[in-house]
Predict the structure of Flavonoid 3'-monooxygenase CYP75B137-like.
Amino acid sequence: MSLITSQSNSSIFNALSALFGRGRCMSPPKDDEPFSPLFLTLSALFALVCYSCIHYLKPRRGSPPGPLGLPFVGYLPFLDQELHTYFALLARTYGPVLKLTLGRKVWIVISSPSTAREVLKDHDLTFANRNVPVAAREMTYGGSEIVTASYGPKWRMLRKICVLKMLSRTTLDSMYGLRRREVRESIQYLYKRCGSPVNVGEEMFLAAYNVITSMLWAGTVKGDERDRLGVEFKNAVGEFTELVGRPNISDFYPGLAWFDLQGIQKRVKVLAGKFDRIFEAVLSQRLGNDKEGGQATVEESKRSPEKKKDFLKFLLELKDGEDGKTPLTLIEIKALLMNMVLNGTETSSNTIEFIMAEMLNKPHTLRKAQQELDTVVGKDNVVEESHISKLPYLHAVVKESLRLHPPAPVLVPHCPSDDTLISGFRIQKGSMVYINVWAIHRDPTIWENPDEFDPERFMNSNVDYSGNHFSYLPFGSGRRMCAGIAMAERMVMYSLATILHSFDWELPKGEKLDLSEQFGIVMKKKVPLIAIPTPRLFDPALYK
Ligand code: HEM
């Protein structure tokens, strides 16, 4: 890849030319008009360019190194859409702390375990803020949700609700029935499609979506609606995570945000409207039902005990201030629902899609995982969550895939609340700090054959998801690390174990496997994985 790429942000170029206009033909000055308006304009422009060259390109004392850009726009025209690989390439020249000036913004890229440790552990508190892209603001009810909330009392309250109540191990255990029902539904569905090609990512997305929404508000997508709504929802989530990850002129020149030159905010607004309508419908149905009389709801809860435990019921109780400590507004409830749906679906389903692709590429790993499942679960049984802790090889497979294809390859950017020294370099307050875990996970000085999918490297290893090993950070580390690790682990492991145990998988004849990645705030496979399942359990009743 060249440093200045052809692919680099054609949309940004278009937007810039829309802003400044195309060059016009200019006639040369006449001899008798030495100070023609044109001459004066050009002189003024020249002076301005000289000034801004000095202003923009002058290295600041103590600043991290980084490539020089152009006046006004900085490095913007040279930025590549695939930020994770591009940052890794730049780090080879400029080192593990590098700086990019883009319009009025400063980006810092961190690319080594020791510098990641400085940011996420030694200066965790200072870097616990977010610098929210304008596109994300459209989707997050003005920063009312956890991922984008500034570090402070509101974030603490939302995070506490998430980690200690909604996503705690006890709550998750109590919701196993819901997860089991949804995963069994997916198996039933795949059984009907046996022998035909299926889009693995779409199926896994739908399974994750059904698990999450049934935990949130006891809603699932079934029958004819399954394909249509699932695909629609997957596309909406995918489009959002891709748009938010895309460099946006509105972020680099806040004064221009109003013009939305790349049309990103407009597209995100449409998506936000779609999600909001779903949440509004769910909320008004629930509030309406509750108003219709407690008796009916209690009766209903008795008939299906999972219903009374869904998150929405729990959040509405908090809203009404039953414990008096955490009053929630309806907006915050909708924002929390948005959090769960956005964070919990694509990350998990993309992870499973990459794992399946890597295993199909190395069939011995697939066979080994199936053998382990046959020994632990047996071929006359179905997988239960209680089996998961007895599957060390499958755990190693998941860890290895998260190493090669971390769903959040540069984490969610952190933002220092004060000027801070990292490895002796001054990091300006307010900069966007990207931790390139993708590069750290493939660093040849840390990992042997880093580009190889080799689950064995995690067998008998103490590297885990805790964020204490700074060479392995798929869920981040410190205060802002992923709030849904327990849920992600269960969903990924349980769904993966079940589809591997229930079916053999192969590529359609003549189909080539493509493992390339596409950057987004959630990374995905560039080419969707299409594979054919065939049943491998003897008793058809095990697919019911
Ligand atoms: C394989 C699956 C997943 C991966 C790899 C993953 C990874 C991450 C990462 C890297 C971050 C940002 C950490 C940082 O900024 O330093 C994050 C944040 C977050 N994740 Fe996950 N995640 C996954 C699944 C989930 C699930 C299932 C949920 C909940 C349903 C969830 C909820 C969250 C929340 C709420 C945050 C924001 C935390 C904050 O800013 O305080 N994630 N995740």
Q: What stands out?
A: Confidence is low (pLDDT under 50) at residues 1-31, 292-303. DSSP finds 19 helices and ten strands in the chain.
